[in-house]
Each structure stands twice: as C-alpha cells, then as structure tokens.
Design a protein that fits this description.
It is a single chain. With about 475 residues, this protein is an alpha/beta fold. The protein has two domains: about 190 residues, NAD(P)-binding Rossmann-like Domain (Rossmann fold, 3-Layer(aba) Sandwich), CATH 3.40.50.720; about 250 residues, Dihydrodipicolinate Reductase, domain 2 (2-Layer Sandwich). Helix content is about 25%, strand content about 15%. It contains 15 helices and 17 strands. The longest helix has 20 residues. The protein is globular and about 60 Å long.
Length: about 475
C-alpha cells in the first residue's frame, strides 16, 4: 500500500489535535551528527506524547506515520480537542520537525525510510505486533505502548525476536521507570511484608463503552482516513465513530479492554517485586462481556506457584471499580481495608493495589509515595534497604503523574549504551502474556489451566484461536 501524499501543515494540525499537558524536559546536548534517528508510528493522542518526549530527550524525528490524513477535520473527538498554546493559539509543536518524511503505512516507512535507528509504536493494540516485529527485523530499536501485543503468542514472539536481533526495546508502562515503583520493588524484596501471599489490584476503567452486543452500523469513511490501513491485520469492520479514534479499546478485535489498558501499569510493581513468571491457572468473573466486546467490569484471579520470596501468590484484578450510591462496585473484600480507612474513597481513589504478606499489608499507588503500611510498625521497626535498582533522570516522582521523561530517557540510553531498559521485551513480554491471559479467561468463560511452555490452555482447546489470532489476507506475519 502506498503512502498518501500529505500536506505538512494539515498533518501538523491533525496530529496535535489531542490536548495534553506536557512538561518539556531539557533537550539532550548530543551533536546533530550522532543523534538517534527516529520514526514515530502513530502521532496523535498518546503518540503525540511519545513523539514529543523522544524529541525533547534529544532524538532526531525524521519520519512521522499516521493513518489519519490530516486534511480531515471530521474525526469527532479530534475536532473538539484542539491543543492550545499558552497564548491561546493552536499548538503546532510538530512544526519543529520540518524535515520529517510523512507516511500513512508504517510498513512502507520501515522498509524504505533511510537512516532510521528506532521507532515508537503508538497505535491501537492490534497493530503493536506487526509494527514492532517489522521494525526489529529491520534492526530498529522499538518503544511500544502497552501491552506490547494483542495476543499471548504475539507477546512471546516479540520477546524471542528482540533477543535474536539484540535491538533495544521498551514497553510504555511509564511508571516502571519512576521512583515509586522502583522503591516499592526494593522494599518488598527486602522483606518489609515478609512472604507475600496475595495481591489485589483495581481500576475505575473502562471509561469508554464496553459490553457491546453488535457491531455499529458502518458509516462513510471520513475524508482523509485510510480505514483499510487502520483495520490492518484485524478482521474487517466498517468505519464508525463508535470505534475510532478512541473507543476501539472495548472491542476484542482491536483492543484488550480495561485489563489490557491498565493492567500493565497497575499490576507492574508486585509482578516485578515478587519475580512472578507465568500463572498455573486463571479464572474470571465478569458483568456484561460479549463475544465481540470486553465487559463493563470484571474480576480475574491468577494463581502463581511461587515467588522470589518463596510462597504461592494469589493475584486478583478488579476493573469497573466505581462508586454507585456510596458503594464501590466490584471492589476487593472489605476485610482487607475497612478497619483502616474512614471511607472507601480513601482507599480506591488514593491507591490502586494492596499487597498482603505474613507481616501485614501495603497499600500502594504507582504515581505517589505516601503509601500506607498496616500495621504501621512494619516501617518503624524495619531497616530501610539501599537503592539497588537504577534510577532514571526525569522518572516519575511523587505527585507528578506517569509521563515524566524517565521511560524515554531510559530507552534512549539503552540504545546508546547497549544496557537494556528495565521494561525491555524480555521482561515486558512475559508480563504482557500474563495480563492478556486474564482476557483469555474472560473470553473462554471458564478457568484456564495454563501450560506456559506450550502456550496452551490444556483444559480449553477452544482457546487456541484467541492465543494466536489469525491475520487478514496481506498481513500474514510469523
């Protein structure tokens, strides 16, 4: 498929339409001749953040790829979300890349663009595998948004090929690079809770439609949108504003629901701290899930045989945890928190998980450091361990959210030094597999007995097409 010729100013306007409060970090002082040459795949929404963050970290943006022809102004959400400068005018930040070549097909960009060293992949989930795989096989370093793949088999393959090609990779679970998660890992591994036996993690997501029982009626494709390219390897469905540019997350053919969106963020610290690998079983409860869409809310229980602390771990995920008439729906058991907090709001709006150990409990939030330990004597009587994990300049600090410069700086430093980032595909691949296993249990509708070595649900052969999905003709890739 050939790229559609684009008008640069229109491209810039459309690509900056999503509004983000973005803190600009000092640019790298590297000289122009030794700067990393980057191509950005997906430059709207989260792609805009990824592109700008890499530029501010000192890379040269030499190619920009997006399926939405920027002459279009009829993509609903984009039309209403004009990014503004401090002076009130339209934000044309991407004007800083006047020499960047424009593409609508990342396959063409990867195959033909000279001088590329690396790519960011900020597409809907169903393109993550193809864009990342093609880039790595071309010898390009990859920063891919979470989860790194749409299916379990894809996550496994990306980890394998990253190891074979020796390129530097990073998954976009940004808080992994920040102080809260890294210090949390150090505390848990130092034994502040003793052996951890349970983890309960939650989110208020989804904040987009889920539970759909039928595909929306097809509408005319907006001017300038390459819908064939947007669909890519997924089964074809007609264009609808109920799918793009944002609500694709709720459809199994394109996204991974609330678990896929937030699990790679919220489950990260305990999964890392406990050295978890693959669960032996996964079972799920849901409300409103269908054959085509993720549920309104769900609860997924993973059973891990052991951890680095030497005990089996039950890991429970809850989504759709929202207040209704003063009661939080689908929340963790009150026995875990009720006696320690004045209201449920103090738990579910402040923290996103609790770890239960033989010594007590830790209430944790990935973007802050005012965690709570119960009993409080856990910390007063505990010798603080040294910092053993690398810290990243610009990483997330208390109260500053998730999108500091840290994850991008860490990835770019990995490219320069050949020292892998800590959320590289060797680590984030198995983690993505685990997250996506929860969706497999939701879709199959029964407890999954998991054989990680063979990527097989030994009690559910009907799960095979979901473990490794088929691709649309012309998009076959192994």
């Amino acid at each position: 498929m050939k790229s559609t010729p684009l008008n640069r100013r229109d491209f810039i306007r459309a690509s900056t339409a999503a509004a983000f409060a973005f803190h600009i970090l000092p640019a790298s002082a590297r000289g122009a001749n030794d700067r990393i040459q980057l191509g950005a795949i997906g430059v709207g929404g989260k792609g805009r953040v990824d592109t700008l963050a890499c530029a501010e970290a000192g890379v040269a943006i030499i190619a920009l790829c997006d399926v939405a022809n920027p002459r279009n102004t009829d993509l609903g959400r984009r039309k209403k979300a004009k990014a503004k400068t401090k002076e009130g005018g339209e934000d044309t930040t991407l004007d800083r890349f006047p020499a960047a070549k424009l593409f609508t097909d990342y396959r063409e960009m990867i195959a033909t663009m000279p001088g590329l060293d690396a790519v960011t992949v900020s597409t809907p989930d169903h393109h993550h595998f193809h864009a990342s795989m093609l880039a790595m096989r071309k010898g390009l370093h990859v920063y891919c948004q979470k989860p790194i793949a749409h299916s379990i088999w894809e996550a496994r393959r990306l980890g394998e090929v990253a190891a074979q090609t020796k390129v530097q990779t990073q998954m976009g679970n940004q808080a992994h690079a920040g102080e809260p998660i890294r210090r949390g890992v150090e505390l848990i591994r130092a034994g502040v809770l003793g052996r951890v036996t349970e983890v309960h993690a939650w989110t208020n997501r989804p904040i987009w439609p889920q539970g759909m029982t039928a595909w929306p009626a097809a509408e005319p494709v907006p001017k300038g949108l390459d819908w064939e390219q947007w669909i890519g390897p997924a089964p074809f469905h007609g264009y609808s504003p109920a799918i793009a540019p944002f609500n694709w997350r709720g459809y199994w053919d394109f996204g991974a629901g609330a678990l896929g969106d937030m699990g790679c963020h919220i489950m990260d610290m305990p999964y890392w701290a406990l050295g978890l690998t693959s669960p032996t079983s996964v079972e799920a409860w849901h409300e409103g899930g269908t054959a085509i869409a993720a549920p309104h809310r769900s609860r997924v229980t993973y059973q891990f045989p052991t951890s680095v602390l030497g005990a089996p771990v039950k890991f429970v995920w809850y989504d759709g945890v929202v207040a209704k008439e003063g009661v939080y729906l689908n929340s963790p058991p009150e026995s875990l928190w009720k006696d320690d907090f004045p209201t449920a709001d103090h738990v579910f709006r402040r923290f996103d998980l609790v770890l239960v150990g033989e010594k007590g409990r830790m209430f944790f939030g990935r973007s802050r450091q005012d965690w709570l330990f119960k009993p409080e004597s856990l910390t007063s009587e505990f010798t603080q361990p040294p910092k053993t994990l690398a810290r990243v300049p610009g990483g997330t600090q208390e109260g500053k959210g998730e999108d500091g410069g840290g994850p991008y700086v860490e990835w770019l430093n990995a490219i320069k030094t050949s020292t892998p980032a800590l959320s590289n595909f060797a680590a984030s691949g198995p983690f993505s597999e685990t997250v996506l296993l929860g969706n497999l249990a939701l879709r199959v509708g029964k407890k999954i007995e998991w054989e990680a070595k063979y990527l097989a649900a030994k009690n559910a052969p009907e799960a095979a097409p979901m473990i490794r999905r088929a691709y649309r003709k012309g998009w076959e890739l192994a």
